[in-house]
Amino acid sequence: SYKAKQFLFLIAKILIVALALWFIYDRLSASQWMDYEQLKALASGPKFYLTLIIVLVLAFVNRFFEILKWQNLAQLLAITTVFQATRQVLSALVFSIFTPNGIGEYGAKMIFFKKEQAKEVFFLNLVCNGVQMILTILFGALGLLLLGYYLWFGLVLLILFVGWILVFVLKRVAVKGYSIERLIEKIKAIPNTIHRKNTLLGTGRY
What we know:
Helix content: over 70%
Number of strands: 0
Number of helices: 9
Structural class: mainly alpha
Mean pLDDT: 87
């Protein structure tokens, strides 16, 4: 019955959140970087609570920018409010915690859309994460240059150059009907206003 399905769905959500919390606790308790005695000493310091508030505010803003990024892209599929985008992003975040390479994030967002939109959801999530990765590489390369790690900076430039050559050479190679050229065309089909907003929010998040 409908009520039975709703009850089972609620139980599933509780179990997933409980599993995620246990996974985080297990990782922290097993981490060699966690020193609880040192943490207790820091907690008694006068600047601890101010620092904690600043960190929590920054964490909230960071995640909120990610929500706005996804809302900006999800509008291409359906009218999406900030509340709906928040549910989708946070659900995806929970699933990504205990799945290899965060792949659960892609599947979790598909739940909120129609079955026939699954491929589009996957593609838009790829765009959302891809922009963030590109910005991370650019800012990271700039950081290497400013800090004087010229060899590493040169290595990053070399990898980017080789990657660009590979994209140019292999862009028309199709695997099961999919190719880099087709992916580029789909990315270009997204309105520039959405790309600009996505880049701006990604920069703000970084």
